[in-house]
Design a protein that fits this description.
By secondary structure, the chain is an alpha/beta fold. The chain contains 16 helices and 13 strands. The protein folds into three domains: about 45 residues, Up-down Bundle (Transferase, Pyrimidine Nucleoside Phosphorylase, Chain A, domain 3); about 230 residues, Pyrimidine Nucleoside Phosphorylase, Chain A, domain 2, CATH 3.40.1030; about 90 residues, Pyrimidine nucleoside phosphorylase-like, C-terminal domain (Aldehyde Oxidoreductase, domain 3, Alpha-Beta Complex). The relative contact order is 0.15. The structure holds uracil (URA).
Length: about 425
C-alpha cells in the first residue's frame, strides 16, 4: 500500500477500499504518510466526497488510532452533547450541570475556540483556578461525585483526528461533510458516552451556512453514532445571530450563571432546555424535569460542585476588561439583522479568540449585545459594548461590525425575518 495510490484513487473520484482507509489513517498517525500527502488526500475528499461506507470506515479507523474511554462502572446512564460551534454558544456551561441534576452522568470533553467561534474550555478558564486538564481517574471521580465534568480530551483519544484536524485547519479542508462528521464522531464514540445529542448549527456564524448542508451533516453524524451503538439525535439550530447577549469568555460564563440562577436570555434558556430534554430522553430518563431543576437551584448546586472539583472558585469575581467601547444604534426602528459571523469576528479581534492554536486568549474580551433582532432600538442608544484589555484592537472590531451588512435597522413596524431557534430534529 502507498499514499500516492490512495490519493490518486480519490482524486479520480473512486471510493476508497476499507484496506486503503485503514492503512492511510494508521500510517498518517504513525508519521509514515507525510502531512503534504494527507493534505492532498483531504483536498481530494473535500472535492469528491465519500460514500456512507467510506465515512463509516474512516471514522472507525480514527477511533482505532487511540484509546477508548469506558464509563460502565458509573451507576448513572451517560449522555453528552456536541455543538458544531457558533457565536455566543455557551450552552454546555448550564446544560452539563442541569442534565446531571436530573440523574444522568455527563462526560463532556470539550475544545478550545479557533477563529470566530468560541471554545468551552476557554470560557471556563475565565473562572479563577479552574483547570481543563484532568487525568482519566480524576475525570471518572468527578463524574461519580458530581454527575458532570467538562474537560479537555486526553492526548490518547482519536490521535489521528488531532493531527488531521490541525492539518485541515491550515489547508482549507475543514468544510467537508465527511471529514467534519468523522472528526466529531470519532472523538465522541471514543469518549464512550451511551447517548449523544448533536446541536448542528446553520447560519452565518456556523460552519454550515445553509440548512440543507446542516441537515446532511446531521444525518451523516446520526448514522455514524447509531452504527456504533450510541443513541444519537441531532437538533438543527439557528446561528444567524449570536446566542444570548454575550460573545466572549468571562462574559459568557456570567450569562450561563444567570441561566443557572433561573434568569438569562430567553433563547439560551430555550435551547438549554430543549437539548437537556433530548439528552435525558436519549439516556432513558424520560420522567426527568429539567425546567424544575433550573428553577429549584439543583442545577446551580451541581455547577458549583463541578467548578470546585476542578479547582475553580464559583464565588470568585470574573475578570473585567480594562477598556470598553459603546457602539450606538445607527437609526431608530426595528433591529432586523445582527450578524453572528460579524459579532464572532469582532469578539475574536478584541482578544476573545485565537488566530493560531498556541495563542493566548483574553478572558474578559468580547461583545455584549443590548438588543436582539426583532427588538426596537433608538438612534444613539447603546447597541453593543465591546470589551478588551488592549484598546488598539477596537478599530479592527469596529471595521467588521461596520461592514458586511452586520447591523440593519429598518423603520418601525418592519417585521424581522422569522427564523426559529430550532429548525428541526434528526433521529
Ligand atoms: N469540530 C471538530 O471536532 N472537527 C471538525 O472537523 C469540525 C469541528
Amino acid at each position: 500500500m502507498d499514499a500516492i495510490t490512495v490519493i490518486r484513487a480519490k482524486r479520480d473520484g473512486h471510493a476508497l477500499t476499507p484496506a486503503q482507509i485503514d492503512w492511510v489513517v494508521d500510517a498518517y498517525t504513525r508519521g509514515e504518510v507525510a502531512d503534504e500527502q494527507m493534505s492532498a488526500l483531504a483536498m481530494a475528499i473535500l472535492l469528491n466526497g465519500m460514500d456512507r461506507a467510506e465515512i463509516a470506515r474512516w471514522t472507525a479507523a480514527m477511533i482505532a488510532s487511540g484509546e477508548r474511554m469506558d464509563f460502565a462502572s458509573l451507576p448513572r446512564p451517560t449522555t453528552d452533547k456536541h455543538s458544531t460551534g457558533g457565536v455566543g454558544d455557551k450552552i454546555t456551561l448550564p446544560l452539563a450541570p442541569l442534565v446531571a441534576a436530573c440523574g444522568a452522568a455527563v462526560p463532556q470533553l470539550s475544545g478550545r475556540g479557533l477563529g470566530h467561534s468560541g471554545g468551552t474550555l476557554d470560557k471556563l478558564e475565565a473562572i479563577p483556578g479552574w483547570r481543563a486538564r484532568l487525568t482519566p481517574d480524576e475525570m471518572l471521580d468527578i463524574l461519580a461525585t458530581t454527575g458532570a465534568v467538562i474537560c479537555a480530551a486526553g492526548e490518547g483519544l482519536a490521535p489521528a483526528d488531532r493531527r488531521l484536524y490541525a492539518l485541515r485547519d491550515v489547508t482549507g479542508t475543514v468544510e467537508s461533510i465527511p471529514l467534519i462528521a468523522s472528526s466529531i464522531m470519532s472523538k465522541k464514540i471514543a469518549e464512550g458516552t451511551g447517548a449523544l445529542v448533536l446541536d448542528v448549527k446553520a447560519g452565518s456564524g456556523a460552519f454550515m451556512k445553509n440548512l440543507d448542508d446542516a441537515r446532511e451533516l446531521a444525518e451523516t453524524m446520526v448514522g455514524l453514532g447509531t452504527d456504533h451503538g450510541v443513541t444519537t439525535v441531532a437538533l438543527l439550530t439557528d446561528m444567524e445571530t449570536p446566542l444570548g447577549l454575550t460573545a466572549g469568555n468571562a462574559l459568557e460564563v456570567r450569562e450561563s450563571v444567570e441561566v443557572l440562577a433561573g434568569g438569562g436570555p430567553a433563547d439560551v434558556v430555550e435551547l438549554t432546555l430543549a437539548l437537556a430534554r433530548e439528552m435525558l430522553d436519549a439516556a432513558g430518563l424520560t420522567d426527568a424535569d429539567p425546567a424544575r431543576a433550573l428553577a429549584d437551584g439543583s442545577a446551580m448546586d451541581v455547577w458549583r460542585r463541578m467548578i470546585t472539583a476542578q479547582g475553580g472558585d464559583p464565588d470568585a469575581a470574573l475578570p473585567v476588561a480594562r477598556e470598553t467601547h459603546t457602539v450606538a444604534a445607527p437609526a431608530s426602528g426595528v433591529l432586523t439583522r445582527l450578524d453572528a459571523y460579524a459579532v464572532g469576528v469582532a469578539a475574536w479581534r478584541l482578544g476573545a479568540g485565537r488566530a493560531r492554536k498556541e495563542d493566548p486568549v483574553q478572558a474578559a474580551a468580547g461583545v455584549e449585545l443590548h438588543a436582539k433582532p426583532g427588538e426596537t432600538v433608538t438612534e444613539g442608544a447603546p447597541l453593543l459594548t465591546l470589551h478588551t484589555d488592549t484598546p488598539e484592537r477596537f478599530e479592527a472590531a469596529l471595521t467588521v461590525l461596520a461592514a458586511e451588512d452586520a447591523v440593519r435597522v429598518e423603520p418601525a413596524g418592519t417585521p424581522a425575518p422569522a427564523r426559529p431557534l430550532i429548525h428541526g430534529r434528526v433521529a
